[in-house]
Design goal:
Length: 142
């Protein structure tokens, strides 16, 4: 895991290497909190799972309903989505709508993805926050 706070993927482990380097990918995935959750190495409260994605309750909820959905494939952030990942990301958004319906968020919900340290991304594995269960108003930050 990254040294800064123990919750980061080892995103710099292969700096300068090509994205498809299998050894680098294994090193990143071995240190990634969300990869470990997806693989069942760290417990979570599962909300949804299919062959592409895994969704679970946030351990520090910012709304009455706060679910995280991640691709099972390790992608560091929105900035790292490649053309071959388009189907994965599209499916995640279909799953977000299903999860929101299952969670009773018929009055609305917010979907957020933080990209990079300045945006507050603390785990460098692509993930989307599904927040709802209360009126969030027009303010973009909860």
């Amino acid at each position: 895991m990254g040294a800064q706070n123990g919750r980061r993927c080892a995103r710099n482990a292969g700096a300068g290497r090509q994205r498809n380097d299998d050894q680098w990918r294994k090193q990143v995935m071995d240190g990634c909190l969300f990869c470990k959750i997806v693989n069942g190495e760290i417990p979570s409260t599962k909300v949804f799972e299919d062959e592409i994605s895994y969704a679970f309750r946030d351990i520090n909820p910012q709304a009455p309903v706060h679910v995280l959905i991640v691709p099972k494939k390790h992608i560091a952030s929105v900035a790292e989505i490649a053309p071959e990942d388009e189907a994965v990301v599209g499916r995640i958004f279909t799953n977000i709508a299903k999860i929101a319906k299952d969670e009773g968020l018929d009055k609305g919900y917010r979907v957020i993805s933080n990209v990079g340290d300045d945006a507050g991304q603390t785990v460098h594995h692509l993930h989307f926050h599904i927040l709802g269960g209360k009126n969030m108003g027009e303010v973009l930050v909860v």
